[in-house]
Design brief:
With about 300 residues, the chain is α/β, with parallel strands linked by helices. It contains 12 helices and 10 strands. The strands form 2 sheets. An 8-stranded parallel beta barrel has the order 1-2-3-6-7-8-9-10, surrounded by 6 helices. Strands 4-5 form a two-stranded antiparallel ribbon. It has one domain: NADP-dependent oxidoreductase domain (TIM Barrel), CATH 3.20.20.100. The chain starts with a strand and ends in a 5-residue tail after the last helix.
């Protein structure tokens, strides 16, 4: 079964598109408060055996929080797998009501600038550096300067990856596999959005590490927001909808790491129950009808408010 890792998208900045943030984080989302909560979450993850932590330059202060925690706990490079991503800049200025929270720019100047920022914080802890939300249309997979910089980073011992999003994830993944330039891919796959599955299976067969993000669909497959079919299965299993949703991902033979997007230790503990759920043909058959057309899924995601 796939390992469960921890993604920091929802804890490094005050606003994000996950449902239930008012309940989970409360009203005080000062830098100091979120730093303390991030450290508490990271302590809980380490104690529970989580060994993969994922961040990004656009996750507000996530890299900063992570770096401070690594130093304060005197964690040696190599004890944890630390991945991060470049391509988006956080521009929300720590405001809940910011008109724009992040801005995408996939060019070599952005790569050089953000890599320097990441290395200044994470140093030798950085295991994997990925393009954030690469697409065919962006041209980043054909950018010789970007690919050259990434190849140099790879030769220095840092693995190179990409993350994908949108209804054409499969095309981007297949292009990355064909290039041979990448060691890992991070993509959205969940009980609602399964379209990238065959391409991810091909990436895994080609030797790339496969990480799955947004396993609970930004909260739409968790708690009260989960569909009745999923809540019914969870009740029968004595688990929570989020754990069942993540178990369905972890059961895929081509998945190496399932990223939890938890923001509290309690939420993380709930997510980790996924490792105890034995996926079956019956569960697969009962939950397969939840799958949606990719265009519908991504349109619904785009409509989620920053909260």
């Amino acid at each position: 079964m796939a390992r469960i890792g921890l993604g920091l998208a929802a804890i490094g900045r005050p606003a994000y598109i996950n449902l239930g943030r008012a309940r989970d984080l409360g009203a005080d989302r000062s830098v100091q408060t979120l730093r303390a909560e991030a450290e508490e979450l990271l302590d809980a993850a380490r104690a529970a055996g989580v060994r993969w932590i994922d961040a990004a330059r656009s996750y507000g202060r996530a890299e900063e929080f992570l770096a401070g925690w690594l130093r304060s706990r005197m964690i040696a490079p190599g004890e944890l797998t630390i991945s991060s991503k470049w391509g988006y800049s956080y521009v929300g200025d720590w405001r809940m009501d910011a008109e724009v929270h992040e801005r995408k720019q996939l060019n070599v100047e952005q790569l050089r600038r953000q890599l320097a920022e990441t290395r200044a914080l994470l140093g030798e802890h950085l295991t994997l550096y990925a393009i954030h939300s690469a697409t065919i249309e962006s041209g980043v997979l054909d950018d010789a300067e970007v690919l050259g910089e990434l190849a140099r980073l790879r030769s220095d011992g840092v693995q190179i990856g990409l993350s994908t999003s949108g209804p054409a994830q499969a095309d981007t993944i297949d292009r990355a596999v064909e290039s041979g330039a990448f060691d890992a891919v991070q993509a959205t796959w969940n009980l609602y959005e399964r379209s990238a599955g065959p391409a991810l299976e091909r990436a895994h067969a080609a030797g790339m590490t496969v990480l799955v993000k947004e396993g609970v669909a930004n909260g739409r497959l968790a708690a009260d927001a989960a569909p009745p079919e999923l809540r019914a299965v969870a009740a029968e299993l004595g688990a929570t909808p989020d754990a069942v949703a993540l178990a369905g991902i972890a059961a895929r033979a081509w998945v190496d790491v399932v990223l939890s997007g938890a923001v509290t230790p309690a939420m993380l503990r709930s997510n980790l129950v996924a490792a105890e759920i034995e996926w079956s043909d019956d569960l697969e058959a009962r939950l397969a009808p939840l799958q949606r057309a990719p265009d519908q899924y991504w349109a619904e995601r785009a409509a989620l408010p920053w909260s």
